[in-house]
């Protein structure tokens, strides 16, 4: 299904129509994304007002509820004080260019605060938006339990590494998929992004998402 009239399934250039209002109190009016080929004047568009709420839980973990359909981002539910050893630098190419020699360094990640909502307190989760699966502060052992039996949208590497889970879909940058979630139709677009510094992008193919009702 082509989610954006006049566009391909891979969005080449994305912009917000300048006449579309974005925020109205606690609700967000439909956020419509178009390619430059979309020429329909704002005066002829029919906008559907959607109810959107966002509940922040921990780090990058949040519930995005769109018209009663709950998307969970980067599930992390470890209690305060949890510690994990991170050795992701072993995956980075050309570490010597950054001054590292010998065995790649490791780091201990310690959770300072627990989640604002415990995993057993979650509402029904309809789908998961996962930026990347290889960092424990974006997907921890408790969060992995929430992937089973659910639709999960992530990177192609994430799709491979999270198998066997038939509900996991890996998206390329700017790829859009149409999905029926909870009986409602959504378009989900992967958007590229980077972590905070230059070194991080060596090992983290991060992504973000646009999600809109069809």
From TrEMBL:
Keyword Hydrolase among record annotations: yes
GO molecular function: hydrolase activity
Protein name: Metallo-beta-lactamase domain-containing protein
Domain of life, source organism: Eukaryota
Organism: Aspergillus chevalieri
InterPro entries the UniProt entry points to: RibonucZ/Hydroxyglut_hydro, UPF0173_UPF0282_UlaG_hydrolase
Transmembrane feature ranges: none
Alphabetically ordered keywords of this record: Hydrolase
Gene3D superfamilies the UniProt entry points to: Ribonuclease Z/Hydroxyacylglutathione hydrolase-like
């Amino acid at each position: 299904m082509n989610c954006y009239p006049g566009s391909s399934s891979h969005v080449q250039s994305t912009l917000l129509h300048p006449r579309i209002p974005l925020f109205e109190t606690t609700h967000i009016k439909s956020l419509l994304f178009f390619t430059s080929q979309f020429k329909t004047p704002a005066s002829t568009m029919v906008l559907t007002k959607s109810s959107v709420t966002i509940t922040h839980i921990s780090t990058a973990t949040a519930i995005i509820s769109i018209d009663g359909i709950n998307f969970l981002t980067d599930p992390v539910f470890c209690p305060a004080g949890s510690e994990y050893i991170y050795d992701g630098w072993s995956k980075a190419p050309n570490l010597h260019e950054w001054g590292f020699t010998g065995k790649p360094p490791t780091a201990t990640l310690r959770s300072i605060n627990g989640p604002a909502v415990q995993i057993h307190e979650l509402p029904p989760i309809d789908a998961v938006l996962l930026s990347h699966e290889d960092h424990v502060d974006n997907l921890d052992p408790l969060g992995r339990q929430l992937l089973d039996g659910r639709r999960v949208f992530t990177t192609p590497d994430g799709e491979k590494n999270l198998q066997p889970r038939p509900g996991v879909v890996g998206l390329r940058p700017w790829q859009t998929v149409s999905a029926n979630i909870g009986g409602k139709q959504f378009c989900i677009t992967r958007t590229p992004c980077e972590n905070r510094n230059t070194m991080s992008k060596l090992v983290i193919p991060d992504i973000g998402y646009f999600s809109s009702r069809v």
